[in-house]
């Protein structure tokens, strides 16, 4: 077997990893892929990453992109993405990750579409669980957060699809870049009062974490809400618009205070989800948090807040500091490649 390429086809990003047949990580990269605009965006994202793919590589694919409103339902989305990926890489060397069912070869995805749909979280948790430890995967990305307990090599998720996972707080639709600010809180402290944020797409969490100084390089790959600059001043202007204010010397200070409060509101929401999962009898006592995703700085903060041990998942997969960081950012893509190598 040649190299194994892991692909995570999301609705907003395409993530790629390359591992050796023995499972050693060689590369991990991410590219913007606004799939809601059309499948041509997947082709463009793939072309930007294609230099990482050697001849005769095998491909392991997971996805969440079937959720975008380009398609009328998830089954149609799985079929369209599967066909598009097959056209890009060749169907004879392609398998799809189908959750608890494992990998299914190209040509059989239609029979397993519901298991293939949005299974990338399970791939990451299954790869993390292979060490046999008791842990809680907290993968905080640009758009969503996955919180998945595991123990003794088993994934202990209660939900199997997005609806079930949201009901169990194993999927929280908050991320550190693309989440609209109006989704963070029903009211916000500003100017001495509580203001309900405008129900408009004026600012995102990228603006919040840019103002707090937490936003990592490369975490914000899509245009800002207004298509404007990605500077602290521009982020302050967008955030202030959420509460009906303009940017000046006084309100700039208030914008930073508001960003800090919103960051704390998001952390509280994730702490509540973690507490709920840890209250389950099967979750294990005081598990180690394994942080992944571009927002894993919040996973570390959460672990500190709750008195839990913390380990960076990327460092579990590579001793090279730069490669470990990329692996954590692209965890589902790395996970499916590692799982296929271990099969």
TrEMBL record:
It holds the Pfam family Hydantoinase_A. Residues 60-309 form the Hydantoinase A/oxoprolinase domain. It comes from the Bacteria. GO terms for molecular function: hydrolase activity. This is Putative H4MPT-linked C1 transfer pathway protein. It comes from Hansschlegelia beijingensis.
């Amino acid at each position: 077997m040649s190299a194994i390429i892991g692909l995570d086809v999301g609705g907003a990003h395409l993530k790629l990893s390359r591992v050796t047949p023995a499972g050693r990580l060689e590369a991990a990269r991410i590219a913007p892929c606004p799939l809601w605009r059309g499948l041509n965006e997947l082709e463009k994202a793939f072309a930007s990453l294609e230099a990482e793919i050697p001849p005769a590589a095998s491909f392991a694919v997971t996805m969440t992109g079937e959720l975008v409103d380009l398609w009328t339902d998830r089954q149609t989305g799985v079929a369209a993405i599967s066909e598009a990926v097959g056209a890009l890489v060749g169907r004879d060397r392609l398998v799809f990750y189908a959750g608890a069912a494992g990998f299914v070869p190209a040509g059989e995805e239609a029979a397993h579409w519901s298991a293939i749909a949005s299974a990338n979280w399970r791939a990451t948790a299954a790869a993390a669980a292979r060490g046999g430890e008791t842990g809680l995967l907290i993968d905080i990305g640009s758009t969503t957060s996955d919180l998945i307990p595991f123990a003794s090599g088993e994934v202990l998720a209660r939900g199997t699809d997005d609806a079930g996972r949201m009901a169990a707080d194993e999927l929280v639709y908050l991320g550190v870049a693309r989440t609209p600010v109006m989704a963070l809180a029903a009211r916000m402290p500003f100017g001495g009062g509580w203001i309900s944020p405008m129900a408009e797409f004026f600012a995102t969490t990228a603006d919040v974490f840019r103002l707090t100084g937490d936003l990592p390089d490369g975490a914000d790959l899509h245009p800002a809400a207004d298509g404007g600059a990605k500077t602290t001043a521009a982020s302050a202007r967008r955030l202030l618009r959420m509460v009906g204010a303009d940017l000046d010397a006084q309100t700039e200070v208030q914008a930073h205070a508001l960003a800090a409060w919103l960051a704390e509101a998001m952390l509280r929401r994730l702490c509540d989800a973690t507490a709920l999962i840890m209250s389950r009898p099967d979750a294990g006592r005081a598990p180690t948090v394994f942080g992944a995703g571009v927002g894993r700085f919040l996973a570390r903060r959460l672990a500190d807040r709750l008195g839990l041990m913390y380990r960076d998942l990327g460092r579990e997969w590579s001793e090279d500091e730069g490669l470990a960081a990329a692996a954590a950012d692209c965890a589902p893509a790395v996970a499916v490649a590692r799982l296929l190598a271990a099969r």
